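If you are new to this repository, start here. Below is one unmodified record pulled from the training split, so you can see the exact layout before writing a loader.
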Amino acid sequence: MTLLWVTGGVVGAALLGVYLPWTAWVLPVGLAAFGLGLALCLGKKWPPARRILLGAGIALLWLTGYGAIVQAPAEALAYRTVEMEAVVTQWPEETDYGARVQIKGGEVGERKVNALFYGEEDLLTLRPGDRIATIAYCTPANRIAGEESLYYAGQGILLQMEGHGEITFIRQEGLSLRYGLTILAGKVMDQIDQLYPEREAGFLRALLMGDKTGLEDVDQNHFNRVGLGHVVVISGFHVSVLVGFLTLFLDPKRKGHVAAIFLVLLAFCLMTGSDPGTVRAAVLCALAMTAPLLGRSYDSLTGLCAALLLLLAVNPYAVANAGLQFSFLSTLGILTFGQRWNKAWLAGVPKKGKRWAAPWIGCAAISLSAMVFTVPLSGLYFGRFSLIAPLANLCTEWAVILAFVGGAVSVLAGAVFLPLGQALAALVALPVDYFYWFSQQASALGLASVDLDRGYYALWSLFAYGILILCLAWPGKGKRPILPVCACAVTLCLSALLTTKTVQRHDLTFTLLDVGQGQCAVVTSGNARAMVDCGGTRDPGDNGATYLQSIGSSRLDLLVLTHFHEDHAGGVLELMDRVKVGAIAAPDVDRDSALRQAIEARAAEEGVPIHYITENTLVSLGRAQLTLYSPVEGGGDSNEQCLSVLCAANGWEALLTGDMPLEGEARLAAREDLPQVEVLVAGHHGSKYATGEVLLEETDPEVVAISVGYNSYGHPAPEMLARVRAQGAELYRTDYHGGITFTAPDGEGS
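And here is the target side for that same chain:
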């Protein structure tokens, strides 16, 4: 228990020290905590308190030391253009604008720091151990998509460097002991690419090496939605499978064999980037196998604390790493509840059925216990959690194990004799394809996961946790889970019903979803659903489908596309993976667009009619109406040829104009008798070339809503914001307020 209290102090202090923006308190409070802890030790008073204080003091003092030793050299380079030299530490990866590679670099002759270096595609020819030299501009690695983030700091990356001018490449000669395993990891991934088709190769690269660059975003969204995202992130599960496979050939009771297992685990950690989950599992396995050989008992919680302290000793900012948080909290849940639940549930199975039921009950107990502490974390990070995760893990665990072991064996066989590797790969592809298929099918289920910020689901989650706490605190043995499980199931159904009915009772609800730099609006009226656009930088298809399913619908009556640009239609294919679309309406523009052709092909495959709007069209949507204004004449590009959409019910209106520029707005206002509207969605995400005085004066909106995310275009533009303020309208924007919902007043009989 001593290490447990110390770890609690370390983690608590590290979290405060890392997340609080003001840091001047860290050193004095660290000294005070450490001094008070020592004083209590000398006085032999309050053992838990002194251990917590000592842990907190050590953590805060190490944060100060880490800042001086590791962070200070990076801060000295921030916002400077320097003559840089560096060594490549990982394999490069392709980006939208070239390539990037992880390096350890800095000014010539000065201390080097971990950084990400960005440049042209010729960086893709580099390999770990190579050296580069160039002129680089350095910025802190503390922002992602324009927002403050500890993501890179949690990985030990402190700078981002952008090359300027010619880059000198110095190829490493011979085999590097330091980077040999990283190079080997690249060779393994090349072998996977040679043996498997592209989709299966992407999965196995992630499964075996932790490289997710070969996975499509839509597939990763499916995995995350059904609680299988951990499969494609190297974690303790993979280490457990690896150790289980090794113990088929090596005896964990023999020191020589245990040493061999340790070496394999160390090599696996180094090859896959030493992810926190991998390190945690490797430490736990090493301690579990070492303790009996030394004649000591093994305590799993102590081992978990030791693994966590090891990671924080290397980098205290790792406490902000989401992977570390999920990994350790899920393991804590398994250690605390998993074995207890497994034993209790198995006790209720007839003796004859125990042999067959044990694996299934064990998997269910592990899956559910792993969620006890991670569900709140999922809500905090993602605003949702997966209800189907236990079933998904139960149905796919066999496929993952076969794919992991079979994939590794096929790579080894292919390196020796390529035809043998290819034959094995054909077999291994079967469980991989099953995993993809199951994830897609399960993801399409309405309540596969729930959004905690929708309807009554947050209240339900609080109720479910209250039930869990009562069950754990209630005295007595032999407690039957049937009553609390039924209570949670019934209240979940009630939450879904109330959420659905709350939306259905309104004549018109207009929701502008937060899809980053893009647009996706959902219009509901009674049981009818329509969506205007589905594109953006934040998983628009996934967000759109999840929103519809969270309000009780897996069907969309009408999908309106203002035009076929990625930021307005890029999520349509993923949306159609999970939601049945009744019809599509769009302008007849961009006929050569690959995106338009892909949408047309999917619509033809599923029998979804596409109506190309060439004249104004009135559409009834439940108790509301949509007016689809045909493209204005005289426009030269697809932005000018956008559809405009007016949503109306009981005298309340909302207008969307897509990416229509000022000239198009003026033509639309001159051609149509536009009403005064309650809500105007700013054109082109707040560009200065849209939402002009003519449209504002014609529609006189009460509210202007901007669908916008992090971008390099300067949206929303100051000129546009000034025009809206001069008009006297209120401003809402998705990058500040998240999803924005407006409800029209209901008419009589609603």
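Two things worth knowing about this chain: The mean pLDDT is 89. The longest strand covers residues 159-170.
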